[in-house]
Amino acid sequence: MPSSIPALSVLDLSPICEGGDAAQSFRNSLSLAQRVEQLGYRRYWLAEHHGMPGIASAATAVLLAHIGAGTSTIRIGAGGVMLPNHSPLVIAEQFGTLESLYPGRIDLGLGRAPGSDQRTAQALRRDLDSHPDQFPQDVIELMDFMSKAPRQSVMAVPGRGLEVPIWILGSSTFGAQLAAHLGLPYAFASHFAPQQLMQAIQIYRETFKPSAQLAKPYVMLGFNIFAAETDKEAQFHASSWQQAFVNLRSGRPGRLPPPVEGYIDNVGPSERALLDSVLSCAAVGAPETVRAGLQAFVERTGADELMVTTQVFDHAARLRSYEIVAQIADTARAA
User: Fold this and answer.
1) Given its phi and psi angles, is residue 66 left (phi above 0), alpha (psi -120 to 50 degrees) or beta?
2) 3-state DSSP helix/strand/coil percent for the chain, to nearest 5?
3) What is the CATH code of the structural domain delimited by 7-334?
4) How large a percentage of the chain has pLDDT more than 90?
5) Segment 113-131, tens digit of pLDDT
6) CA–CA dist 197, 128 (Å, integer)
7) Residue 132 has what pLDDT?
8) Does residue 3 contact residue 289 with C-beta atoms inside 8 Å?
9) pLDDT of residue 115
10) Percent of the chain, pLDDT > 70?
């Protein structure tokens, strides 16, 4: 497996902090996108969530249009759109619009989870209980809408002929099998659900079928990073994410809380087990600590690209974390 640090990208959940609002989150997201563009990150992705008090990126395509207008070179996209919530035609039109506005810069990652609780999913879809899982068919239909010679009589305008790159997202082996079958790049949500990571990667690589979009397997993995000048400072900033993760898994989703000194050392055994699982795909600490964690993860997984996510209460500290990671990668590649 490769030991060098691969291409780095950014997953931004556009967190809403306690005491803040969505408007502030959007200003922070644009600031982050502009800074990581300067730092040389490959992509900036937003994820669709609904009914989450601490996540502002529900209208993913709308927010991406805002990000695109404020940047010029970095690829921007969805990581991802939860396709069962939408008509494939609508997503083809939305991302055809984005591709027309920002040509050559748009990615479309697709997931089959609702990105919400069941009641919110019902409000989104209306017919949640009346249809079986049609995700693979919906992906194929969406790709056809954006192809140069669609088989369907209905036309996606804009969208037709633009062939926006499609990614399959997943946190289980289902997405790995679908991505391999369709010959598409695969992004695994190891930053919050690492349990089936190695099995999914193996299935994807072993069963991959080349396609017009992709000749060989390409794996991008989510990875949590909290980098600061010292281990202690990084652990302090990471406590906001740790609190939010425990709250979410305990059925108490809320806004991103302020950091707490020594939080992880004072949680109960069940909360600690939750955090230990997700920390298997994380690096928290000073630059050297993060470098070692990054390289160990890449050696273990052979990731072609890492999607770095950093949920930090203080925006300046979040920007600094991404700066440190970029410096680590630059140094490793120059060595």
Assistant:
1) alpha
2) 45, 15, 35
3) 3.20.20.30
4) 88
5) 765 567 776 777 656 554 5
6) 28
7) 46
8) no
9) 52
10) 95
SS3 label, residue 61: helix
Amino acid at 74: I
Residue 130: the pLDDT is 43
Cα 5 to Cα 287, 298, 306, 321: the distances in Å are 14, 7, 9, 16
Confidence of residue 11 (pLDDT cuts 50, 70, 90): very high
Q: What is the per-residue pLDDT for 2? A: 40
Angle, alpha carbons 14-17-18 (nearest 5°):
160
Unique residue bearing structure tokens 């050559």: 104
Calpha distance 180→119 (Å, rounded)? 32
- Tell me the whole-structure pTM to 2 decimals: 0.94
Dist. CA 174–CA 133, nearest whole Å: 12
DSSP single-letter state for residue 257: P
pLDDT in the model for residue 129 = 54
pLDDT of residue 113: 78
179's tokens = 């991505």
Name residue 43's beta-bridge partners: 75
What is the gyration radius of the CA atoms in the chain, in angstroms?
Answer: 19
Hey, what are 104's tokens? 């050559």
Q: Which is more confidently placed, 249 or 28? A: 28
Q: Where are the beta strands (DSSP E) in the chain?
A: 7-12, 43-46, 75-82, 106-111, 166-170, 186-188, 219-227, 282-285, 305-309
CB 127, CB 74: distance < 8 Å? no
Task: List, in sequence order, every residue forming a beta bridge with 87; answer none if it has no partner.
Answer: none
Where are the domains positioned within the chain? 7-334
Residues 6-29 as b or e (16 or more Cβ within 10 Å = b) = bebbbbbbbbbbeebeeeebbebb
**Residues 6+ away with beta carbon under 8 Å from 106:** 64, 75, 76, 77, 95, 98, 99, 164, 165
